[in-house]
Every structure is written in structure tokens, then in C-alpha cells.
Amino acid sequence: MIGIGTHTHVYLVAGATDMRKQIDGLAGIVSDTLGADPFSAHLFVFCNRARDKLKILYWYNNGFWLWYRRLEQQRFWWPSPTSKDPVNLSLRELHWLLEGLDPKQLEGHQHARFNLI
Predict the structure, then answer these.
(1) Where are the domains of the chain?
(2) Closest CA to 60 of 40, 44, 46, 45
(3) Gap between the Cα atoms of 22 and 26, Å rounded
């Protein structure tokens, strides 16, 4: 089982990515373009120009995982390429994205915080 903890961040790489790239090419984008560490145990999500394919790069223990998702008739919400900075999502928002929702338009319940005396 793959252990994705609550401390794991999700980074969307804005704009289109060449889906012919495999693990080494995507890790190069993470380190060169984003200035992030591909070995950091965070999720890095890439999308193609047509917005019907996603790849997720994830380092776990001693190797990379590469997930690939292809939609047959619909499109993913994806941030415009105007920003070179990655878009940060929570794991919950990533699930929304994979379900076809725009994670920036949805809001869940606010966390309740109580001070115990």
C-alpha cells in the first residue's frame, strides 16, 4: 500500500506538459522549472494541452511512482500557463480535480478550533 500522509503537498504544474515525458523528464521539470525536490515525497501533477490526460509523480521510500489518467470524453480543470509557479492543492482538492471538479471553486466546511481550559 502506498502511504500518502497528511503532510504531503500536491503541486500542479501550470500549463501543458508533453505527456511523452516519463519519470526522468518529469523529475527534471520539477527540479529545473519549479525549483522543487522530486524526492520530497510530495505529489507533482502534470497535464497535457488537451486537458484530457494527467500524470502524477511521487517519490515513495526508494523509488518513483508514476500515475497516469486519461479521460475519454471530458476535460480536467487546469490552471492557465501564465503562472510559472506551481499551484498548491490539498489531497482533498486533488480528489475533487480527479472527479472533474474545479478545486478552486469549491469550499468545504471550515475547521473548528476550540481552546480547552
Answers:
(1) 10-98
(2) 40
(3) 6
